[in-house]
Amino acid sequence: MRILIDECLPQEIMAAFRAAEILSVPEAGLAARSDTALLDAMEGRFEVFVTVDKSLRFQHDLARRRVGFRVLRAESNRIETFLPHFATLRAAAFKVKPGQVLEIDLEKTP
Q1: Which residue range is the domain that position 66 belongs to?
Q2: What would the pLDDT profile of 29-87 be if each residue is shown by its tens digit?
């Protein structure tokens, strides 16, 4: 599984997705692109995109994409917010299908 982590998330979150090929947007050479350019560039290179951008699904037609989208809802994008949820994040990444947008609300997840 090839996972791309949005640049608005802390680098340390990549540890949650061990056993997968994972890159951050900057590591993939895709930093500072518009949403459309980023979406186009990840096609065929990644299977899952992890972000906290809740508006992405409303601004773009993601259903036609060959990438699955995991939108994390959290009180902040600091690593401390995500650390207790690493197992949940890892499991969730492997459940999303191409063109599917699944949200995970970390504020309600124990």
Answers
A1: 2-105
A2: 999 999 999 999 999 999 999 999 999 999 999 999 999 999 999 888 899 999 999 98
Is 55 within a domain? yes
Q: Residue 110 domain-assigned?
A: no
Cross-strand partners of 99: none
Task: Say how many domains are in the chain.
Answer: 1
pLDDT confidence of residue 55: 92
Enter the pTM of the model: 0.92
Q: How far apart are CA 8 and CA 30, in angstroms?
A: 13
In whole angstroms, give the CA distance from residue 102 to residue 106: 13
Residue 34 vs residues 25, 74, 75: alpha-carbon distances, Å: 12, 23, 24
Residue 94's DSSP bridge partners are: none
Q: How many Å is the Cα radius of gyration of the chain?
A: 13
Burial of 50 (0-12, 13-18, 19+ CB in 10 A): buried
User: Which two three-digit tokens encode residue 53?
Assistant: 């951008």
22 within some domain:
yes
